[in-house]
Description:
eight-stranded mixed β-sheet; N-(1-d-carboxylethyl)-l-norvaline Dehydrogenase, domain 2; alpha/beta; 8 strands; 3 domains; Rossmann fold; globular
Amino acid sequence: MKDRAAKSSVPVGVLGMGLMGRSIVTCLLSAGHRVTGITSSPSKLTTTRRHVLRLLRDLEREGLLRSDPHHLIERLTISSDYSDLRGSEVVIESVVEDIETKKDLYRRVEEVVPARCLIGSNTSAIPVSLLQRGLRHPERVLGFHWAEPAHITRFMEIICGEQTKPSYAEKAVRLARGWGKEPSLLRRDIRGFITNRCMYALLREAFHLVEKGYATVADVDRSLRNDLGYWITFAGPFRFMDLTGIPAYGAVMRDLFPDLDNSTAVPDLMTRVVQSGARGVSNAKGFYPYTPESARHWEKLFLKFSYEIRKLAVKYPEDAGDSPARRKRSGQR
């Protein structure tokens, strides 16, 4: 396994020290960056370093980090002062999904960082073009869509807004590969990007099948785990069609597409679950029944699975079947 603590002199700032922000910080430290984390929460000023150190130790225990976590944590500064971002070459924002909140933070960042500093938003769905409007240097703003746990997963989407310069997008892709990611680049801005557009189409159909009585929640989960979950770490949908025979899919599309759910309203089942106060395993209340103990156990299992599936995915990179010469031309690792 390649050491996650690659040598990097690029200083990086991270805005927001919530669950995802701390995980992003861990990823960046493990890649060798000096990191400044910005938070407005007094409690996170004192607890973030301890939390990140624990995540670094987990990476070391799982064989994904050979550098000393105690050495890496010394490269982390936690502050509430935006002037501490001075000199950063990359700043990544990971705060609430609210356009005005994010843009206010970008304006504060632009007061202190150099004009060449790349600014990335860890947004899940907000069009990057909306976030660029009104900024001094909108050409350097991109979307950096991470997946949780950000320090483990290979996923990253990099999204260009209407005003993003290609040179900044190219820099972002290079950085993401240095972070241990297999980045996808969206050359045009679209709400939801790649994975969320595909996932929410799947979720809509899943809710439809349950609400109309065709299957239970557990039935839907079981089928998707044992079909989609079987192959999708190895191959995306287009590669999977190549591997299993393209013509059949065209025939099924003609018959099935007209029959799929195309409603635009939030499903009634989702509305009821949200109104009940359910947040999932975080409060032991969701689509499945939990006790506090079982909820914590599911969280631990998910983390363990994340490490194990990452190790498997690394054995089969996206270009695993290409010739060595083609892999070299494509710039993949």
